[in-house]
Amino acid sequence: MERERERERGEREVREMERESKRERERERGEGERERGRERQRETERAREREREREREREREREREGGRERERERERESEREREREGERENNYVPKTGVFDGDYCTIPTSQ
Fold it and tell me: Where is composition skewed (Basic and acidic residues) in this entry (predicted)?
């Protein structure tokens, strides 16, 4: 009788230790899954940050390209302005000057 109770008590202790061990493994597994979840979340955030940085770089490049385009347009406009000025100078005939077809000279004696 005593032996049987001792055996049952031993079996209960073994079952309790097994249950405790199982709970511990589940707790560790849960913590591991949570840690993996946090790591995935951190990786996702890093990927988003890299994408935001690439977008900022593309925007800076567009601005630089736009600036270069505006600079080229200003240069073209100033070139056109110089051409117009040159045409005005070449076509200008002073009232008192002599225009010989190529040049306009202003008489020095007046």
Answer: 1-90
Query: Distance between CA atoms of 96 and 108, rounded to whole angstroms?
Result: 10
In this structure, is residue 110 part of a structural domain?
no
Give residue-wise pLDDT tens across range 10-59.
899 999 999 999 999 888 888 888 888 899 999 999 999 999 999 999 99
Residue numbers of the domain that contains 100: 2-105
- Interatomic CA distance for residues 97 and 110, integer angstroms: 11
Write down the residue that tokens 């849960």 correspond to.
30
Assigned token pair, 55: 């977008």
Encoding tokens for residue 86?
């040159």
Q: Give the integer Cα–Cα distance in Å for 67 and 89.
A: 32
55: left (phi over 0), alpha (psi -120 to 50) or beta: alpha
Domain count for the chain: 1
Return the residue matching tokens 């073209």.
Answer: 76
The structure tokens listed for 5 are 């109770």
